[in-house]
Amino acid sequence: MDKKNAPIGVFDSGVGGISVLKTMTVLLPHEDFIYYADSAHAPYGTKTAAEVQRLSLDITKRLLSKGAKAIVVACNTATSVSISMLRKEFSTLPIIGIEPALKPAALSLPHPRILVLATPMTIREEKFHDLFVRFDTEAEISALPCPELVELVEAGKLQGSEVDQVLFDKLSPFDGSVDAVVLGCTHYPFLKEAIRRVFRHEVTLYDGALGTAKELRNRLAQRELLTNRTANGKVVMENSLGEAEAALSEKLYSLFSPDME
After folding, report:
1. Residuewise pLDDT in 10s, the chain (261 residues)
2. Rounded to whole angstroms, how far apart are CA atoms 103 and 180?
3. d(CA 125, CA 48)
4. Is 146 an active-site residue?
5. Which is nearest to 37 in space by CA: 56, 59, 15?
6. Which helix (H) or strand (E) holds 118?
7. Looking at the whole model, is its pTM more than 0.70?
8. Residue 75 is among the residues annotated as catalytic for this protein
9. Among the options 63, 75, 152, 205, which is catalytic?
């Protein structure tokens, strides 16, 4: 296969990274993608760093065996603990990660009040700490671990009374005290409308999907790996739990509307 027309491998701890995948397919409509959801081991955010690194390495090898020309780690947790290891292991391969979109949130207003929602591991890792320190003088930043939101999305629960109650319990104490909410896990954008409903005042939501999609496009262009096809590309869904869960991935992919601004 011509390397330019090889697929792009994308993975996440589960179905959350589909929010990133959908954004990439809008920005790069002619590319082929293979998406691997590791739902059998979700959530990553409550595991040890060593476990997440092992899983990330195994999945990357799997995607490379299918001919992937680049890898996108569409998981904030896996990016925070595994991206350096993967880039060292596969030094000639474009490997793109994702991180909480703290920069655009911090620069959106004069000293905004920002709430970062993320997994416990993302919040603990040095990568997030460095990001926090970088913008600490620009904004008032609070971080809130929300592993239960991952579990809701993995179960296909995007709306309804259970979702509303979980979000209300987690977020209502911050109503009136934040200007922006950073969705620091790729599962969370699936709940963005329900998250907005918790706040009686207007808050702006930020996620890192578009930034990751643009970085992927730039890295492929630099290496002359952008496809030369003019037809729309195809997306293949895989899930470590099997075909039934892959069907959920297809459903979430069709439902999700990415923010392209």
Report:
1. 589 999 999 999 999 999 999 999 999 999 999 999 999 998 898 899 999 999 999 999 999 999 999 999 999 999 999 999 999 999 999 999 999 999 999 999 999 999 999 999 899 888 899 999 999 999 999 999 999 999 999 898 999 999 999 999 999 999 999 999 999 999 999 999 999 999 988 999 999 999 999 999 999 999 999 999 999 999 999 999 987 777 888 888 998 999 887
2. 12
3. 11
4. no
5. 15
6. strand 113-118
7. yes
8. yes
9. 75
* DSSP code string of 160-216: SHHHHHHHHHHHGGGTTT-SEEEE-STTGGGGHHHHHHH-SS--EEE-SHHHHHHHH
Domains 3-98+209-255 and 102-206 share a fold: yes
Q: 34, 68, 185, 246: which is the annotated catalytic residue?
A: 185
What does the domain layout of the chain look like in residue ranges? 3-98+209-255, 102-206
Furthest-apart CA pair in the chain: how many Å? 55
The domain 102-206 is placed in CATH, from the list 3.60.15.10, 2.40.37.10, 3.40.50.1860, 3.30.457.10, at 3.40.50.1860
- CATH 3.40.50.1860 describes domain 3-98+209-255: yes
